[in-house]
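Before relying on records like the one below, remember that each one covers exactly one chain. Contacts with other chains, cofactors or solvent are not represented anywhere in the record.
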Amino acid sequence: MRTVKFGVIGLGLMGKEFGSAAARWCHLTDVNVRPEITAICDTNESRFGWFKDNFPTIALATTDYRALLMRDDVEAVYCAVPHNLHEPLYTDIVSAGKHLLGEKPFGIDRAANDAIMACLAQHPDVFVRCTSQFPFFPAMQRIGRMIEEQAFGQIIEVNAGFLHSSDLDPNKPINWKRIVQFNGEYGCMGDLGMHVCHVPFRAGWYPRSVRAVLSNIVKQRPDAQGNRVPCETWDNATLLCDAVLCDAVLCDAVDPGAGEPFPMILKMQRIAPGENDTWYFEVKGTRAAARWSTTNPRRLELLEYTGGEQAWQRIDTGWTPAFAGITGGIFEFGFPDAIQQLWAAFLSELHEGRRRSLFSGCVTPEEVAYSHRLFTAALRSHAQGTTEVV
């Protein structure tokens, strides 16, 4: 089994999730490549302890990411840092010849993303992907297979979203995601949007235009000293898109067999009362329809239409993900499983040179770049009250 030695830059919540996935890699049974954490980096040294306690393979713990990139025992990097740091860190990582799994949105704005994409073009041998774990739930893998098989017929409508209520409390202290300098003008779109766009973009359903409504609901929050300070970023975003099936990732060409454009409604909300961490997806077609939500992660709802009466069926999917493991198929699949599947997808494609199926691969840089086109158009749409070309 091939071992890929990793450096981790950014040791917060998602850095630990990667560590946990790597520590229980034996859970997977059909991958012939595994990660090994050899170096860690964070500006906060207090975060080193958990990693050092659990990963004896770590040879370097540093506050300087450049020291990590200089090491021969680091082949790939997982980078989870605020959006304003994406451009300098991602370009340095790629320029150092290290493979990269980076957090969305791959740049604080479109200019930063353009710079990252230009760097990738100069280093075609470096493998780069973006995180997005929710499509690895078994129900979404099944919907993905249906999309591949064109089981839905002509697409009538697509709805996708990521909703939570973590910012509903106006007294929640401000953090970097609520400050434009660090998060960017996109607000919730930069933080949540790639999760929402992952499946539609992979299916080839790209927005040609967008009418966006953005909301800054809580305009002030307490800082560390208890002072009320401006909360600058958009809390919620609703994007009404005119979508079409494209035969090119940047949607510069329309598939001749695409049929008519269809409405696609994308929602990204940090203030959605009653929602904890809800990712949902719904597709309606002339031959079938499907819907799924993390609210009930086992439950897949399908409607297959062959004439006559229409009826929704409910299917409990169990533990049947893209990459097999030791868990029995009757048991539940959860968030840690999705994270490990995401990492299996990254390492499998890196090692094998291809993804196993359309929806068993991570988000590509080109897909992320198109999200910047969409979110930039959404900012213009909201500011001017217009429908904007993406």
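The chain has a mean pLDDT of 95.
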